[in-house]
Design goal:
Layout lengths: L5 E6 L1 E5 L8 H8 L1 H7 L3 E3 L5 E5 L3 E5 L6 H28 L5 E5 L12 E8 L4 H14 L1 H4 L3 E3 L8 E3 L9 E4 L7 E4 L11 E6 L8 H20 L11 H9 L7 E2 L7 E2 H19 L6 H17 L10 H16 L6 H9 L9 H7 L9 H9 L5 H14 L4 E3 L3 E4 L7 E2 L9 H8 L4 H15 L14 H5 L6
Parallel strand pairs: 10-11
Antiparallel strand pairs: 1-5, 1-7, 2-6, 3-4, 4-5, 7-12, 8-9, 11-12, 13-14, 15-16, 16-17
Helix pairs in contact: 3-6, 3-13, 4-6, 4-7, 4-8, 6-9, 8-9, 14-16
Length: 496
């Protein structure tokens, strides 16, 4: 496949910490958090003008699903935009909670476990050809995903229990996976979900739904996560020989690997000698390098992905984590935890280090520890704040642009509209609903024709954008500001 769209769904942890007494329970806090969403879209499950989906998932977890993206940097910016949107909603929730006579702070965490041991996910979606042989795909992809945590895990301080001492692990998500492949997502949590919902032409495409990944704060880690997975998929789709790394027990292996920060933990391979995660990943990396040398780079970020991949394997293999402690989440966090522990003479079982672990994932740009490191120049960043701000209100140049324009235009005219990944419908014109099955198209003449029936779109959009500015919003995402025309600039309107 020359082209691919990718999206990521992130479930966020939320908590309310009052000045005194007990905080709001998660379900009530979630209702406060999503009040602006319900006011904007009359539902807690909506698509917003940047093409993304914003909704409350099972267990009162706020979830943000990026629009479909064809460029990796667009995807990473869209994911960061989700953090910014959740932060805006948290600030508004704090204000409304205070108005109702409560006090305290609302925390939104982009992580995968809470203090009670519950887990919530970060799910990747890759568009793949329908012709891809799923048995071959799973045989190669499972070993890659089981061992990918040494590259892109978020890192975790694991408290002591009756079987082991407190220690640092690669992954937050690994201990919560229960099957290799399954159609379930919550009941048994497989590494690969087989539910066949392509949100595209089912005759040509299927959606690969990967639910094993950790939520990443680092943009370079995200680039490696999506870029390396895309490369492995391209090799599978091309039918090139990759090597046989099929594991006897993938679930046992994913746990074993996560808890051995040295990367030397051996796992059983069918019909072969045991191997460790570094050996498996190095085999895949070398094949990927040959694949690119033979066929050429398919996007401009390939060299960066390969460099990050190789440096991270070297860091794990040699134990010199300084090679990637500005670039890879688990190494960034491990360095921070060790600095705090050494400064205070603390063991890994000290509660303060668990707090440091959790605070790393706080999306608050002034309070979150990852953001603190970012401001101090201690982590690499490949996405600018301007890119994030634009991604909050502008869809990427895929089918998401059609969805965003449809939603914004209908709202500007006060027309009730419904949209999802594929469908576009004006409620008072149900027989004229349009399905856009091609996820790569940034425009569709049928949707344009439907919107033209509403009236003078440029005039209405400009009037709406001015009104939105005057009213304010809990988040830039819950406006139609991205539709601002050149006339807005000439009128001297303030920048978004």
């Amino acid at each position: 496949m020359d082209r691919r769209v990718i999206g990521v769904e992130t479930e966020f942890g939320i908590t309310h910490r009052p000045t005194s007494g007990r905080g709001l329970p998660p379900d009530e806090l979630a209702r406060y958090l999503f009040r602006p969403v319900v006011e904007f879209g009359r539902s807690s499950n909506i698509f917003i003008p940047n093409g993304a989906r914003l909704y409350l998932d099972v267990g009162s977890h706020p979830e943000y699903a990026t629009a479909e993206c064809a460029d990796l940097l667009d995807l990473i910016a869209a994911d960061r935009a989700g953090e910014a949107i959740m932060h805006d909603l948290a600030l508004e929730a704090e204000r409304r909670i205070a108005e109702d006579g409560f006090d305290g702070t609302v925390y939104v965490l982009k992580n995968n476990v809470d203090s009670a041991g519950n887990s919530y996910g970060s799910h990747e979606n890759y568009l793949i050809p329908r012709t891809t042989h799923f048995r071959r795909l799973s045989g190669i992809l499972l070993p890659f995903l089981v061992t990918r945590q040494i590259l892109t895990g978020a890192g975790r301080v694991v408290p002591a229990d009756e079987t082991r001492e407190a220690h640092f692990a690669f992954s937050q998500r690994a201990d919560h996976m229960w099957e290799g492949i399954s159609s379930a997502t919550t009941r048994s949590r497989p590494i690969i979900n087989t539910r066949d919902e392509p949100h595209a032409d089912a005759a040509e495409h299927r959606r690969l739904h990967v639910i094993v990944g950790d939520s990443n704060m680092s943009t370079t880690t995200s680039l490696l996560r999506y870029g390396s997975t895309d490369l492995v998929l391209r090799m599978i789709e091309a039918g090139v020989p990759i090597g046989d790394f099929e594991m006897e027990n993938p679930i046992g292996a994913i746990r074993h690997i996560s808890h051995d920060i040295t990367g030397t933990a051996q796992v059983r391979i069918r019909g072969s000698e045991p191997m460790n995660a570094v050996e498996i990943q190095r085999g895949l990396l070398e094949r990927a390098k040959r694949f690119i040398a033979e066929r050429g780079a398919h996007h401009e970020h390939v060299d960066t992905v390969l460099d990050l991949w190789g440096r991270t394997l070297e860091a794990v293999e040699t134990g010199d984590h300084s090679l990637v402690d500005r670039d890879i989440d688990w190494a960034i966090k491990k360095r921070l935890v060790e600095e705090v522990a050494n400064r205070g003479g603390l063991g890994l079982d000290h509660p303060k280090l668990e707090q440091i672990d959790m605070a790393y994932h706080d999306v608050h740009p002034e309070r979150g520890l990852f953001h603190l490191l970012l401001r101090r120049g201690r982590v690499t960043d490949i996405i600018t704040e301007d890119q994030v701000r634009r991604a909050m209100v502008e869809p990427p140049a895929t089918r998401a642009a059609v969805r965003g324009e449809f939603l914004s235009t209908a709202r500007a005219f006060g027309a009730e509209a419904q949209a999802d990944w594929v469908h576009h419908k004006l409620v008072d014109r149900p027989l004229e609903a349009v399905m856009v099955k091609d996820p790569f198209v940034p425009e569709d003449s049928r949707v344009e024709a439907l919107l033209d029936k509403l009236g003078d779109r440029q005039h209405q959009l400009r009037a709406r954008s001015i009104a939105e500015r005057e009213q304010g919003a809990a988040s830039l995402a819950l406006t139609d500001l991205y539709a601002r025309t050149d006339a807005d600039e000439q009128a001297g309107l303030p920048p978004v």
